[in-house]
Amino acid sequence: MSPQSGPPRRSRPGKPYRRPKKDPVRILAFEALRAVDERDAYANLVLPPLLRKAREDGGFDARDAALATELVYGTLRHQGTYDAIIAECVDRPLREVDPPVLDVLTLGAHQLLGTRIPTHAAVSASVELARVVLGDGRAKFVNAVLRKIAAADLDAWLERVAPPYDEDPEDHLGVVHAHPRWIVSALWDALGGGRAGIEDLLEADNERPEVTLVARPGRSDPGELVAAAGEESALPGRWSPYAVRLTEGGEPGALDAVREGRAGVQDEGSQLVALALANAPLDGPDRRWLDGCAGPGGKAALLGALAAERGAALLAAEKQPHRARLVERALAGNPGPYQVIAADGTRPPWRPESFDRVLVDVPCTGLGALRRRPEARWRRRPEDLAGFAPLQRGLLREALTASRVGGVVGYATCSPHPAETRAVVEDVLGEARKGQGVTAEWIDARPLMPDVPALGEGPDVQLWPHLHGTDAMYLALLRRTG
User: Residue 239's closest CA among 471, 470, 474?
Assistant: First the structure.
């Protein structure tokens, strides 16, 4: 042995392998996001059964459920913004990042940029999640990306990834407020006005909506719901006399009236639409009402209760049998006569001129309910508008045909997009003027929503989340004239 070589070195013992810590809250949130991505499911349908199972399995309390809900909905609402930030921190196009890895990254980005979770906790919890659901190798990639994201706050990132407003206002607003550019453009066209109004609307789309209940007339009343929920947790609705807002969240199913079907969960905008149709002036008999697109049954249940108070009968039709069963469940116990059928409103089994009041709440893109279904904004495409157009026009034509002369028809949709609202009504009325359909005239719907401000120039009505605290429901009321 040479004097320079010295004794042989001993190899350092490697660190013992540490199993990843399983965090039930973040694992549940990841599972929900995967279901939304893989199965095109909606979070409001996927999350409740996952939470229920977690509670039943034990060790999952109300705080855990609240955090899991915030992680899922917050990540989905701001996905576009987080994608733009993550794209700056990876060395490949996002489309080349495996979807499960991207879900872990967006969950982590939301914790870093959209919550008060401390930075070290957000990173370490996300890396542990990655180790559990992705493996140690990809967890290192997650760690590296999240540490880059953690180097700046949200405002600094938006300065970096959003184009200047003056150069491209729609793209700027889309990145800052996490909406696809085409939706920003469509909402801005429908809303009109300047920058402040559209920013208020986009911000409202990203807020978690209150849970709103409806006390079905003759079966319960708002006072009962407020008393049952507790005055510290519930307030009367802003506009509907039957509405109650659960200000502290809470579980509606814990209330007796909801469990028994005497009350239900229903956005106040939907209540206003049903009430406007029910209260529209009518000459002649008022005995037969039709809900031509009744699923899942919220408006049908309110209309059925109102009809019962007047001695009228409701026919609720829904094309899909499984949704028709939901309508039956919503109407069960209604005190007045009603019938639920599975029927296509564009090929109806009822005779023309059979009804005094008709509602068609038509299928649409759902751009008015992005607060409740945030994933819809990333799922919808501009071409979807053309796909819905023939169905919407067909349903309105048949609704007018189903009404007697002098009867009232309500055309409603949960979208503010001009192509799904007034354009549909004007097209159908224009066909009639050319002798190709049933003639009808507008009814001014605004007086039928008393005390509700900012309803527009009429005669139709557009509700807005930032102005009314409701979904962006649209309503046109028509009277058949011939």
Answer: 470
What are the Cα distances from residue 318, in Å, to 278, 305, 315? Answer: 20, 18, 10
Side by side, which strands form the sheet with 234-236?
A: 234-236, 243-246, 211-215, 263-265
What size, in residues, is the chain? 482
All residues at 6 or more sequence positions from 202 whose CB lies less than 8 Å from its CB, including other chains: 173, 177, 179, 184, 187
Q: Which amino acid is at 479?
A: R
- In 10 A of CB 129, how many CB atoms? 25
Q: How far apart, in whole angstroms, are the C-alpha atoms of residue 257 and residue 266? A: 14
DSSP 8-class letter at 347: S
How far lies 290's CA from each of 82, 320, 359, 360, 365, in Å?
45, 17, 6, 9, 23
Across 271-361, where does the E strand assignment appear?
288-291, 313-318, 338-342, 355-361
204-243 pLDDT tens trace: 999 999 999 999 999 999 999 999 999 888 999 999 999 9
Query: What is the C-alpha to C-alpha distance for residues 295 and 341, in angstroms, rounded to an integer?
Result: 11
Longest dimension (CA), the chain: 116
Instruction: Given the residues 89, 293, 364, 414, select the one marked as catalytic.
Output: 414
Pairwise CA distance, residues 155 & 167, whole Å? 19
Taking Cα atoms as reference points, which of 278, 282, 310, 279 lies closest to residue 291?
278
The angle formed by the CA atoms of residues 366, 367 and 368, to the nearest 5 degrees, is 90
343 contact partners, CB below 8 Å, separation of at least 6? 317, 318, 319, 349
Q: What is the pLDDT of residues 91-129, one digit of tens each?
A: 999 999 999 999 999 999 999 999 999 999 999 999 999
pLDDT, tens digit (0-9, with 9 covering 90-100), for 70-96: 999 999 999 999 999 999 999 999 999
- Could you count the other beta carbons within 10 Å of the beta carbon of residue 322? 10
Split at pLDDT 50, 70, 90, the class of 2 is very low
> CA 213, CA 89: separation in Å to the nearest integer?
44
Q: For residues 272 and 463, is the Cβ–Cβ distance under 8 A?
A: yes
DSSP label at residue 276: H
For position 14, what pLDDT does the model report?
A: 58
Beta bridge pairs of residue 204:
none
DSSP designation for 371? T
Distance of alpha carbon 237 from alpha carbon 405, whole angstroms: 35
Report pLDDT digits (tens) over 180-197.
999 999 999 999 999 999
Q: What pTM was computed for the model?
A: 0.91
pLDDT at residue 350 tops 90 = yes
Q: Is 414 a catalytic residue?
A: yes
Among 223, 221, 268, 246, which Cα is nearest to 254's?
Answer: 246
